[in-house]
């Protein structure tokens, strides 16, 4: 997980040299951006641990974090700058405290981010959004002896996802003040147990500085739409083929309400074939044929020795049909420079057993490497609430838009 996130961050920086406007022969040029954010947050009391059943005997209701970010936007006379004049992407690092260092820790988040404009409100004021996607390190995980009350976090490293909406006030040509709200989620994608996750609702204030911005390149907030290049856009169909894998942990709950964690980790492998209709430069949608093999699926229906202590339970391997599923999902994708966010909801139609016979939901971040190849980092839920597995892989896009590269 750490290695994969590091690769993602490295690629975000190296991509500054990938994008160039081939048709206009514009030199590769970017505008650097530095920002600072301060986020006081409310921690949702999803479990009794947050309500005060902890060693400190005190509710955990607040979270405070500070963030510093480096980003870039494309020059206004480039193809990407014309298509996405207000879009900034880059990397960030954030320090968190939940005011309970002994049991929760003070995790540090490292992530990629992207922010852009939703609507212009006045000449100097706009409504923006921002997402963060990465990993957080330094959590104090559950330990039966040293940290028995923390049944929320099962690993020292957890994924980090944030989505925020901001008011952006352009104070000067180089400095902007931003304030808004957002939601954050921390979890490990079932790679370790427990994995109930941590969720926060944050307020945010911050400053953004573009020290190399050209006064002539400033985008006036009155211009609500991007300037479309002269060669325009023609809708077309593209096809994404994705291969992914991951590992996960599996727990079991007995009829008396007690539970246990099955020893070891289980492999997950999948393949998606996703035709997408590209409506415009910013949005595409379609259907996806989703095949997945989950080594842990329905294993709890095949207990070999029920009369032994729970810590010595053995399992028969389920038949292949109980661990394989084939589903069809509807997909919608927001397309921005370098990154695309893909959301899906689907149902398995070839499956057997409670673990696979259900609706599933996916959240995916695609990171372009070349015109056709992209990294795929995703997360799958079952029944809108049960975390299932990570989806770490690589994809190939047939009939990609050459003008983006």
SS strand fraction:
over 45%
Regions with pLDDT < 50 over 5+ consecutive residues?
7-26, 217-231
Question: Which radius of gyration do the C-alpha atoms yield?
Answer: 23 Å
Oligomeric state of this protein? single chain
Which structural class should the secondary elements be placed in? mainly beta
Write out the strand line-up for the largest beta sheet, numbering strands in chain order.
1-2-3-4-5-6-7-8
Can you tell me the overall shape?
Answer: flat
The SSE string, one letter per element, is HEHEHEEEEEEEEEEEHEEEEE
How would you state the average pLDDT, rounded?
84
* CATH C-level of the largest domain: Mainly Beta
Distance between the termini: 28 Å
CATH architecture of the largest domain: Beta Barrel
Q: What topology emerges from the helices and strands here?
A:
Elements: H1 2-14, E1 30-43, H2 48-51, E2 62-74, H3 79-83, E3 88-97, E4 105-120, E5 125-139, E6 157-170, E7 175-187, E8 198-209, E9 236-248, E10 251-253, E11 259-261, E12 266-278, E13 283-294, H4 320-323, E14 324-335, E15 339-350, E16 359-368, E17 373-382, E18 386-398
Antiparallel strand pairs: 1-2, 1-8, 2-3, 3-4, 4-5, 5-6, 6-7, 7-8, 9-12, 9-18, 10-11, 12-13, 13-14, 14-15, 15-16, 16-17, 17-18
């Amino acid at each position: 997980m750490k290695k994969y996130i590091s690769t993602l961050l490295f690629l975000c920086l190296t991509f500054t040299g990938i994008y160039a406007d081939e048709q206009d022969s514009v030199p590769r040029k970017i505008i650097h951006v530095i920002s600072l954010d301060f986020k006081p947050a409310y921690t949702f009391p999803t479990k009794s641990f947050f309500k005060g059943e902890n060693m400190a005997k005190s509710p955990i209701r607040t979270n405070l974090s500070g963030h510093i970010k480096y980003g870039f936007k494309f020059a206004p006379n480039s193809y990407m700058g014309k298509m996405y004049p207000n879009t900034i992407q880059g990397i960030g690092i954030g320090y968190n405290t939940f005011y309970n260092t002994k049991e929760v820790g003070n995790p540090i988040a490292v992530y990629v981010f992207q922010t852009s404009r939703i609507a212009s409100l006045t000449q100097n004021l706009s409504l923006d959004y921002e997402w963060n996607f990465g990993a957080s390190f330094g959590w104090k995980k559950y330990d039966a002896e040293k940290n028995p009350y923390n049944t929320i976090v099962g690993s020292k490293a957890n994924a980090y996802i944030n989505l925020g909406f901001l008011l952006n006030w352009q104070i000067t040509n180089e400095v902007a003040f931003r304030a808004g709200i957002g939601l954050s989620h921390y979890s490990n994608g079932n790679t370790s147990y427990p994995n109930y996750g941590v969720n926060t609702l944050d307020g945010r204030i911050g400053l953004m500085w573009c020290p190399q911005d050209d006064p002539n390149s400033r985008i006036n907030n009155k211009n609500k739409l991007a300037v479309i290049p002269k060669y325009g856009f023609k809708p077309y169909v593209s096809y994404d083929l994705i291969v992914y894998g991951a590992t996960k942990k599996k727990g079991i709950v007995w009829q008396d309400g007690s539970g246990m964690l099955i020893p070891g980790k289980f492999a997950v492998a999948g393949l998606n074939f996703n035709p997408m209709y590209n409506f415009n430069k910013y949005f595409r949608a379609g259907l996806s044929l989703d095949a997945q093999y989950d080594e842990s699926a329905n294993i709890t229906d095949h207990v070999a020795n029920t009369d032994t202590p729970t810590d010595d339970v053995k399992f028969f391997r389920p038949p292949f049909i109980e661990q394989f599923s084939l589903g069809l999902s509807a997909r919608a994708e927001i397309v921005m420079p370098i990154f695309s966010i893909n959301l899906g909801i689907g149902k398995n139609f070839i499956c057997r057993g409670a673990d696979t016979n259900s609706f599933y939901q996916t959240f995916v971040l695609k990171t372009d490497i070349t015109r056709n190849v992209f990294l795929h980092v995703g997360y799958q839920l079952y029944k809108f609430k049960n975390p299932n597995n990570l989806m770490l892989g690589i994809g190939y896009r047939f009939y990609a838009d050459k003008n983006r590269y």
